[in-house]
Amino acid sequence: MMQCHRDQDALIPRPRGNLPRGCAAALVAITIGGVMLLSPERLFGWVAMAILTLTLGPLLHGLCLLAEEMLHHSDTRYRGRAVLSHMLPACGLGGKTLLAASLACLLLYLAGHPLPHKGQSWQLLLLVSVLYTLFKSLGVLGPSEVEVSDICERRKMNVAHGLAWSFYVGYLRLVLPCLEESIAKFRATHQANKDSWGRGSRKLLILVPLDANIAHKLEDEDDNIRFLDNLPNNEIDRAGIRGRVYKHSVYSVLDGHGKAHECVVEYATPLLTLYNMSHESSAGFGEPERREQVLLFFRTLQDILEHSLECRNRYKLILLNDEHENDPHFLSKAILRHLEQQKKEEFCLNPPPHQEMGRPIDNIPLVNGDWHCLEPMSTDPTLMFSLEKPLPLREPVEDTDCFYRES
């Protein structure tokens, strides 16, 4: 089971960290240290000139963007909102950039001109800023793919983020709280399969294939998987639709010994959107982008469900690697691995009860030297109330004199 988790962690990309910022800070420290050793008297002037050059260029480019927005998009994109509060920050003319440029001008004024001739400083500053504006407009200084990806991930702007939230808000949050009740009704009407339902089978197994290629019938993917029946329908009034039907399918999965294991399993349906987008030329969404979005979808959905009280302990996400063409029973093996993992986690945390407690322990099986709970989580938590009136708090008693007399 640990190997399965390691393989899954090796596929899912982690959020990008702050290593680039640390490297940049180290480079700045090394450079400033070198300048202090060579020309300490001109350090502040050069730092001010560098900061002013870096900030004046984006400010000029922001003015170019502002001209486009004010002339052609002020009504359609900003709906007549204030220029200072909405349009200026959108064009990069925010307070941080203006503050940095102002501080650089003040520092340059106090430190004097770092170059031998006064005119050279302003000529170099103006030339670099104008060239920055040109190169930025032409895309030469545009953000790299890594920067764009980082911005989209931090601001939750990827296609995967929207699909994951839509899948949770519009489906999982509605059906998972009712899942246990639906399974109980199903087991009551299917007595023949009652003994094959383990603890892991009472969760919704959500399959997330990396290639986003979803089969509409699981038995078409693996002949060890057989459709059994549907759970009782859940009818919810949703978006003007009275009694909208939500349903889940129960499958019987055969292991290597021919034993059947019943479970509720389905694919993550938003992956169909990613798969269809990758086959539409107008979407500009190829296979590498699709794979990246599937992994981000899995990570985002996992984070959402881990913080959801309505869905806790009612689901299991299964990431399916797409490198299994030679194994016709890959899907059933993946499902059985997770069912076995859930089964092994059903252990009592406390030691078994003693015989003198009056509770028989003959029906508690011993597995690998550990006491195994049949239903460790089946009892709902209860609140205990006391009918006695609360007693007043005791006041502190001065016993200093007594202490000294005894000593």
Write the layout of secondary structure elements.
Elements: H1 2-11, H2 19-38, H3 43-72, H4 83-90, H5 95-111, H6 118-138, H7 145-154, H8 159-175, H9 179-189, E1 204-209, H10 218-221, E2 225-230, E3 234-238, E4 241-246, E5 249-254, E6 260-267, H11 271-277, H12 287-306, E7 315-320, H13 330-344, E8 366-367, E9 370-371, H14 400-406
Parallel strand pairs: 1-6, 1-7
Antiparallel strand pairs: 2-5, 3-4, 5-6, 8-9
Helix pairs in contact: 3-5, 3-6, 8-12
Outline:
The protein is an alpha/beta fold.
Describe the structure.
The structure is a single chain. The chain is α/β, with parallel strands linked by helices. It has two domains: 153 residues, no CATH class; 186 residues, Rossmann fold (3-Layer(aba) Sandwich), CATH 3.40.50.12100. The strands form three sheets. The protein has a five-stranded mixed sheet with strand order 2-5-6-1-7. Strands 3-4 form a two-stranded antiparallel sheet. It has a two-stranded antiparallel sheet with strand order 8-9. The chain is elongated and about 90 Å long. The C terminus is likely disordered. This is Stimulator of interferon genes protein. Its main location: cytoplasm.
Give the overall shape. Answer: elongated
**What is the assigned CATH homologous superfamily of the largest domain?**
Stimulator of interferon genes protein
Give the biggest sheet: 5 strands, mixed
Distance between the termini: 65 Å
Helix vs. strand class: alpha/beta
Helix and strand element order = HHHHHHHHHEHEEEEEHHEHEEH
The CATH class label of the largest domain is Alpha Beta
As residue ranges, the low-confidence spans are 347-380, 400-407
The amount of helix comes to 40-55%
CATH architecture of the largest domain: 3-Layer(aba) Sandwich
> Helical stretch count?
14
Strand content: 5-15%
Oligomer: single chain
Could you please say which CATH topology of the largest domain applies here? Answer: Rossmann fold
